[in-house]
Amino acid sequence: MAWTRDDMCRRAAAELKDGYYANLGIGMPTMVANFVPEGIKVTLQSENGMLGMGPFPTEDEIDPDLINAGKQTISELPESVYFDSAASFAMIRGGHIDLSILGALQVAGNGDLANWMIPGKMVKGMGGAMDLVAGVKRVVVMMDHNAKDGTAKLVESCSLPLTGQGVVDLVITDLAVFAIEGGALQLIEAATGVGIDEIRDRTDASFTH
Question: What is the number of domains present in the chain?
Answer without folding.
Answer: 1
